[in-house]
Amino acid sequence: MSLKSERRGIHVDQSELLCKKGCGYYGNPAWQGFCSKCWREEYHKARQKQIQEDWELAERLQREEEEAFASSQSSQGAQSLTFSKFEEKKTNEKTRKVTTVKKFFSASSRVGSKKEIQEAKAPSPSINRQTSIETDRVSKEFIEFLKTFHKTGQEIYKQTKMFLETMHYKRDLSIEEQSECTQDFYQNVAERMQTRGKVPPERVEKIMDQIEKYIMTRLYKYVFCPETTDDEKKDLAIQKRIRALHWVTPQMLCVPVNEEISEVSDMVVKAITDIIEMDSQRVPRDKLACITRCSKHIFNAIKITRNEPASADDFLPTLIYIVLKGNPPRLQSNIQYITRFCNPSRLMTGEDGYYFTNLCCAVAFIEKLDAQSLNLSQEDFDRYMSGQTSPRKQESENWSPDACLGVKQMYKNLDLLSQLNERQERIMSEARKLEKDLIQWTDGVAKEVQDIVEKYPLEIKPPNQPLAAIDSENVENDKLPPPLQPQVYAG
Description:
Blueprint: H1 36-75, H2 81-105, H3 108-111, H4 114-121, H5 125-128, H6 133-146, H7 151-168, H8 175-195, H9 201-223, H10 231-244, H11 262-277, H12 284-306, H13 312-326, H14 331-341, H15 344-348, H16 350-368, H17 378-386, H18 405-455
Subcellular location: Cytoplasm; Early endosome; Recycling endosome
Region (Disordered): 66-85, 462-491
GO biological process, one term: protein transport
């Protein structure tokens, strides 16, 4: 039975892409549906609440330990020296833990001890080592760019160098805290340029792009997919999920793209290339540019197929299909990296933010994709997911999960050869039929000509007598007088 009448497309209301707080900016699943600005506000509130609760817990634990220590000193003073030392050691250890908790949430912990500051001022081997060619190139471009701003450029370069030094000594912090420091730096630099430097907004945006490129090229290998996060685990999970969904067809997703058109097929290939190329970029803005180029190729493919501009309801299913077909490497790590360290204004507004939000929605859809999403029965969905059968060839043999992939590919190739052989035989049969028809047509024409000739025979008459010459009857031509000769008249 055809599913066209029952099939529904993947529809996402544009309001669902916006921040759920209603500020008008684009939200992000990584920020629980908030935009960058609202997420930071909520994060700060939750963090302050957690710090307050930890303070109260630390004070309560300290009071309980002090009371327990005082009671043990008064009631058990006559115990042996060994037991007293054990209790004292135990109490001191607990007190030290409480003090450590209090120091962790105190402001002094951020500054660090004098010894740590002295060690921090010492040159690090990682700083003194030779930087990569790309880092040197980006640094030269950044310096040349800032030269056009004179004093403002010098101040920006000084702040950027100080920020990099600070981030070098904050590598032990969590990736969320490093992201918070980076976002604060973006915000402070932008506000300072607008208030103190009186820099126009369009130039501020260009400067912020160069700042992001400079600092993230240097911090990339420390903050992209760090070991302290589960980004790599999420990458493997989404890759495994996409591989398991290799059987999903464009028709199941209601993708309005016809890949049989050569120009559309080229657009699909370019879109897949761009989404895969995202992993090779270091700067969040460059990764976003890959997503934007991929999305524009998708819109062009839909436009060529339908001969009309594409809508948002057409775009998202096609983007999901491109992600499934391309299976981009380290997809979750790239999304998290952009979310954490990209200039927030770029994610909150503009086409880059819109396309990035749609990509996050596409990944979320793939993670939660089920039988109902594809208008399939649960039985068929489970069979497809387990690899027992494929929707492209229902009559194929049911393979066991541990079957050799090479054998599967061999039978698939044999099936293709069988199909090609059938097509070849069909073509040869049609060719022989055409040859027979031509022979019959030739014989029929010859027979019709022969019948006409027999019915109307051709009579050949002798040629007519040619006309005789005027003097033909003159036999005595020699008796004729000679012809007149011209005479000269003298006179």
